């Protein structure tokens, strides 16, 4: 009997998670060119902007979605307490007072009775089923903790990304305003030349058309800037009134990011940790479903006293008591217990694949971000040169037009190319910053040095 019991207990503690899930095959290094140093702790300092930390702290305190997730986390913490309660005896106390009127042979009398009873109910943790139930709740809580850390990380990334979107929109608005000012200046010169008989009427209409189109584009750009400010304010938990002061310009980050090793993602990235704890919780649930088919041992007991009135209870007289131990074994439940165990097995397989999906999707994000970083750097430096050339060409084109060497359409083309180059440089600078944000999130680096 002891040997059978020992073998059953050993079977109960065996994990059903596949070995290839516990240790998935990962490459020894990233395929993209990258620094091999450890993933940086406190990556917010990479941007050199003191405003970012205060914005992130404000979002952590006021963001509506994060507050919901914090409440869910606290509820999961209470579930740990609930699931652990059956490990201990349950005690109940009952106190009753009754008064009845009895009628016999034409007479009546009133009879009062009072009773107090202390009840005990306890299921022994014979196979570890109750421990596994609590273990499942603890692991689910840890999964929610890791998911909350991931939510904080993604919210911080949204705040930083939104901040740089606002800065980009503001600088683009300033570029539009400068371009409109130049076009209006050119229009003044062309109209003056037309009155002097130097320029043609076609040039005047072309210049006027370009000014009006630029005014329309400027209005659209201001609307875009307003919407981005409102979105950032919403993430911060503020009223979206479009009032947000921004005086800084987009930074340029040229240092390469230390990306560590692919295997570091398993311990660094909260979303992967959450999937792993969910997998362990599913494994514990399978153990619970399996042990539900085993016998259960319950102890019940009662201790009480009776009397005429409540104040005569527990007056030193003998107490009535009972103690009962019962062993129950499921025999037939219409296949319910076996089906629940099989259901738990399938849910475990599902969690295994979800865990692998999280691991390899994270690897995909990092590889794509690393490759994109290299591509964006090349494009950015090329467009810096293109911007310099286009601005010079624009100035020369207008000078040559005033000398009558080229038509005004050539001036318009040079102006368009100069503007496109300048706006592209701003956009690429923002893309480089967004890429750096995405890469830090993908690698699972902590926001600040004090974050665990």
Rg calc = 37 Å
Q: Gap between N and C termini, in Å? A: 49 Å
How is the CATH topology of the largest domain named?
Answer: Outer membrane efflux proteins (OEP)
Strand content: 5-15%
Round the mean pLDDT to the nearest integer and report it: 85
Fourth-level CATH superfamily of the largest domain: Outer membrane efflux proteins (OEP)
User: What gross morphology would you assign?
Assistant: elongated
Give the count of helical stretches.
Answer: 10
Low-confidence stretches: 1-11
Q: Which percent bin holds the helix content? A: 55-70%
Strand order of the largest sheet: 1-2-3-4
Protein topology:
Elements: H1 2-12, H2 19-22, H3 50-62, H4 64-84, E1 90-104, E2 107-123, H5 129-195, H6 201-235, H7 265-268, H8 270-291, E3 296-307, E4 320-328, H9 336-402, H10 408-443
Provide a brief overview of the structure:
This protein is α+β, with helices and mostly antiparallel strands. The protein is built from ten helices and four strands, in the order H-H-H-H-E-E-H-H-H-H-E-E-H-H.
What does it look like?
The chain is built from ten helices and four strands, in the order H-H-H-H-E-E-H-H-H-H-E-E-H-H. The chain has helices at residues 2-12, 19-22, 50-62, 64-84, 129-195, 201-235, 265-268, 270-291, 336-402, 408-443; strands spanning 90-104, 107-123, 296-307, 320-328. The longest helix has 67 residues, at 129-195. The chain has two domains: 11-88 and 127-294 and 335-443, Up-down Bundle (Outer membrane efflux proteins (OEP)); 90-123 and 296-328, Single Sheet (Outer membrane efflux proteins (OEP)), CATH 2.20.200.10. Residues 1-11 have low confidence and may be disordered. It has 452 residues and is an alpha+beta fold. Helix 3 (50-62) packs across helix 5 (129-195) and helix 9 packs antiparallel against helix 10 (408-443). It has a four-stranded antiparallel beta sheet with strand order 1-2-3-4, with no helix packed on it.
């Amino acid at each position: 009997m002891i040997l059978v019991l020992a073998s059953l207990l050993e079977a109960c503690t065996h994990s059903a998670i596949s070995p290839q899930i516990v240790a998935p095959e990962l490459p020894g290094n990233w395929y993209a060119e990258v620094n091999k140093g450890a993933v940086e702790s406190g990556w917010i300092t990479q941007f050199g902007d003191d405003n970012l930390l205060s914005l992130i702290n404000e979002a952590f305190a006021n963001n509506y979605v994060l507050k919901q997730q914090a409440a869910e986390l606290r509820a999961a913490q209470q579930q740990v307490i609930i699931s652990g309660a059956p490990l201990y005896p349950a005690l109940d106390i009952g106190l009753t007072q009754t008064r009845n009127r009895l009628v016999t042979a034409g007479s009546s009398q009133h009879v009062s009775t009072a009773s107090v009873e202390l009840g005990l109910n306890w299921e022994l943790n014979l196979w570890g089923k109750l421990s596994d139930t609590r273990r499942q709740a603890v692991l689910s809580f840890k999964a929610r903790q890791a998911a909350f850390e991931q939510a904080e990380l993604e919210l911080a990334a949204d705040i930083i990304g939104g901040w740089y979107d606002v800065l980009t929109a503001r600088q683009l608005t300033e570029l539009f305003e400068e371009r409109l000012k130049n076009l209006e200046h050119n229009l003044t010169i062309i109209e003056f030349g037309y009155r002097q008989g130097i320029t043609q009427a076609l040039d005047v209409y072309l210049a006027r058309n370009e000014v009006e189109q630029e005014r329309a584009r400027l209005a659209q750009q201001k609307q875009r800037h307003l919407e981005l400010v409102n979105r950032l304010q919403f993430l911060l938990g503020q009223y979206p009134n479009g009032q947000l002061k921004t005086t800084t310009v987009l930074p340029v980050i040229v240092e390469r990011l230390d990306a560590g090793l692919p295997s570091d993602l398993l311990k660094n990235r909260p979303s992967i940790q959450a999937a792993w704890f969910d997998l362990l919780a599913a494994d514990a649930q399978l153990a619970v479903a399996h042990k539900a088919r085993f016998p259960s041992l319950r102890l019940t007991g009662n201790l009480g006293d009776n009397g005429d009135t409540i104040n005569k209870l527990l007056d030193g007289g003998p107490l009535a008591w009972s103690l009962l131990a019962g062993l129950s074994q499921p025999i037939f439940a219409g296949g319910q217990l076996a089906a629940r165990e099989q259901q738990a097995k399938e849910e475990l397989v599902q969690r295994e694949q979800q865990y692998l999906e999280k691991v390899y999707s994270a690897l995909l994000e990092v590889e794509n971000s690393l490759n994109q970083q290299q591509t964006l750097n090349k494009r950015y430096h090329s467009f810096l040169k293109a911007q310099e050339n286009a601005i010079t060409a624009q100035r020369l084109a207008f000078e040559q037009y005033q000398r009558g060497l080229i038509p005004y359409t050539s001036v318009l083309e040079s102006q368009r190319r100069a503007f496109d180059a300048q706006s592209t440089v701003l956009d690429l600078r923002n893309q480089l910053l967004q890429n750096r944000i995405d890469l830090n999130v993908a690698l699972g680096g902590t926001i600040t040095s004090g974050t665990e």
